[in-house]
Amino acid sequence: MGDLLCLEDWQRAAQARLPGPTWGFLQGGSGAELTVAANRAAFDRRVLRPRVLVDVTKPDLGTTLLGDPLRAPLAIAPMAYHRLVHPDGEVATARAAGECGLPFVVSMFASRTLADIAAATTAPLWLQLYWLRRRDALADLVRRAEAAGVRALVLTVDAPRVAKRLRDLRSGFALPADVTAANIDPAAMAVMARTGESGSSIQSHSREQFDAAITFADLAWLRALTPLPLLLKGILTAADARLAVEHGVDGIVVSNHGGRQLDSAIPAIDALGEVVEVVAGRVPVLVDGGVRRGTDVLKALALGAAAVLLGRPVLHGLAVAGAGGVTAVLSTLREELEEAMVLAGAPRLSDVDAELVR
């Protein structure tokens, strides 16, 4: 792993190891993948405005999020089926999160059980949810999450159905028989075993199982079900952020699903400012999508994010070297963030503000 010096190196190494259809599933986006490219471009067009002659001898990246102390303002974004890239799957990812002192947002479609994931880590675990038509199955999953020690729920709100992903259709991607959603009622997942009319079993499953009729008013049902904090993931406008806060959510994740849902959606980093402004500090605002460098994280923090979620690079590390690879990826990003803060003259998170970025 000594030659893997940045997250782009891990990406190339993972691509060399994984089958083409699996790589396409991990890396691909919806439609023409315009939003996938735009997420990166939106970070690259921003510049940092460093201050000088600042005492930077003792940088401090520590923060607190939903009551948990973190070693850095970073977390692992929810991604399905980690066993696609490594046999230990989410257990290895959770172990790395614990090593790094960062939260792990476990996907509803994790390929290891919540109990096994929780037993492998000291990291704060959050559970990501899609709203199923079968509310009994959703309620049962929430109860099992509570029993496993999950500390927050993250409801994905930008996916009333899974968007068409051309890479998967062209490659005929399908889940291997031994990779399943380990925490979902098998009856609800039966459609995943066959190919739908669209040619994508995952897309067909979402149309059969996701409830496309839910509104902000339905959040009351979920809030009544559990005392766990609730974050909404997929907010991209001030109007929706305002509604989220009015309906009592405990946090917002500004996200366009890594470019995997509405193609041509605004890059998350471009939407961050208006969301932060309307939220006005009432709940933490997180962001994901396109993060590959420590300077990306610093730019997001300067625009008001409380923390940044890292997605695909985590799976790149997992594919190459299991838990050690994930630890290395997270550590690299943290080290890059520390260096960026020092060189920008903002050695503590309290020093990072909007004046730092343009």
Automatic annotation (TrEMBL):
Cofactor(s) essential for the protein: FMN
Pfam families: FMN_dh
Keywords linked to the UniProt accession: Flavoprotein, FMN, Oxidoreductase
Organism superkingdom: Bacteria
Domain FMN hydroxy acid dehydrogenase intervals: 1-358
Family: Belongs to the FMN-dependent alpha-hydroxy acid dehydrogenase family.
Protein name (record): 4-hydroxymandelate oxidase
